[in-house]
Write a structure and sequence with these properties.
Distance between the termini: 54 Å
Structural class: alpha+beta
Largest sheet: 4 strands, antiparallel
Helix content: 55-70%
Number of strands: 9
Radius of gyration: 22 Å
Strand content: 5-15%
């Protein structure tokens, strides 16, 4: 793998930090940390540049909160100035790693996403009778810092940038493991980490029908025995190379006739349905917004935005009659 040098200067350049600040501000325009930075933006970026240039920059402490949907997770929120640094790093590194990532890795990548991943999964299930589905046990908490930094060093030759990546990685974990859920860098780092599995399956095992979205992945085949053997090989590869384990309860081989549960959908060769728990969550959110509107907490525009967002998501799949019932108030 060809290593790339002289990246640190590009990361800490004023123009790059300013562009990163604008990206970090999206969705945070009305929140106090973003507003404070916005009010003194030029001085804050100059100060950040100086700290990065002289090596005195140190990431701050995270603020943690618990998210309960779609499942209980602890979300880490970095100080706003650190989020600017995260975006600055990803902005420079992303074009480099995009050349390495396989075409069937869909999480947190431009022009990819959930909908394309679901469509690709249906494409594969139409051509294969069996599939192996799995994800990683406590993935974000299990990422090994030493392994991750070695992966960085395989592609990045710039020692100053490697030192900065080390600071960010160590700041977000505990006892040499873990990257916090919620960081721009964490999402990017997680793709770099499991890119090793992608290339193992695509290049060494020659599995053409394979798809990954973050740590959820599916391998398709017309040979059930091949998938049985592959499950053992994947488990060994993850343990030996990435210090990871498969989640046993979420790892199974099944026939396409039973459908594939993937990214909140039930995927069959000829139809895609929304999973019941995702539909319940959508209806619950709509009910909450209607109640907020009725009690004056939100205006009609906000209510319509929530309803249109839910319907736009449902509209992508086979949900015509379902959407008619929701509009008619027959479901709630």
């Amino acid at each position: 793998m060809r290593r790339v040098n002289n990246l640190y200067t590009a990361v800490i350049a004023f123009d790059n930090l300013y562009a990163a600040y604008r990206r970090a501000l999206k969705g945070n325009e009305g929140k106090m940390p973003g507003l404070r930075f916005f009010f003194h933006a030029e001085n804050e970026i100059i100060r950040l540049h100086r700290e990065l240039a002289d090596g005195s920059y140190m990431p701050g402490d995270y603020h943690y909160f618990t998210c309960f949907e779609p499942k209980e997770r602890i979300i880490a929120v970095a100080p706003f100035r650190d989020r600017v640094v995260h975006h600055a790093i990803v902005g420079v590194l992303n074009p480099i790693y995009e050349k390495i990532f396989i075409s069937d890795s869909y999480a947190t990548r431009k022009n990819m996403g959930v909908h394309k991943a679901i469509e690709r999964a249906q494409y594969f299930i139409r051509r294969n009778a069996w599939y192996l589905k799995s994800d990683i046990l406590k993935y974000f908490n299990s990422v090994d810092h030493k392994v991750l930094l070695k992966l960085f060093a395989r592609k990045i030759k710039d020692n100053r940038l490697l030192d900065l990546l080390d600071k960010i990685t160590v700041n977000g974990g505990s006892e040499g493991r873990g990257i916090p859920i919620g960081n721009q860098t964490s999402q990017f780092f997680s793709n770099i980490y499991l890119d090793q599995l992608d290339h193992f399956l695509k290049e060494k095992k020659r599995m053409r029908s394979y798809i990954r979205y973050m740590d959820d992945f599916v391998v398709f085949s017309n040979d059930k025995e091949e998938l049985l053997n592959l499950r053992r090989e994947i488990s060994a590869f993850l343990a030996d190379n990435l210090e990871l384990q498969l989640k046993d309860k979420a790892t199974y081989i099944n026939s396409r006739s039973n459908g594939l549960s993937f990214l909140g959908r039930r995927i069959f060769p000829s139809i895609i349905r929304i999973q019941s728990e995702n539909l319940k969550r959508c209806l619950k959110n709509l009910d909450r917004r209607r109640h907020e509107y009725a009690t004056g907490l939100i205006d009609e525009k906000r209510l319509m935005q929530s309803q249109q967002s839910c319907m736009a998501n449902l509209k992508l799949w086979n949900t015509y009659h379902l959407r008619k019932k929701i509009y008619a108030g027959q479901l709630s």
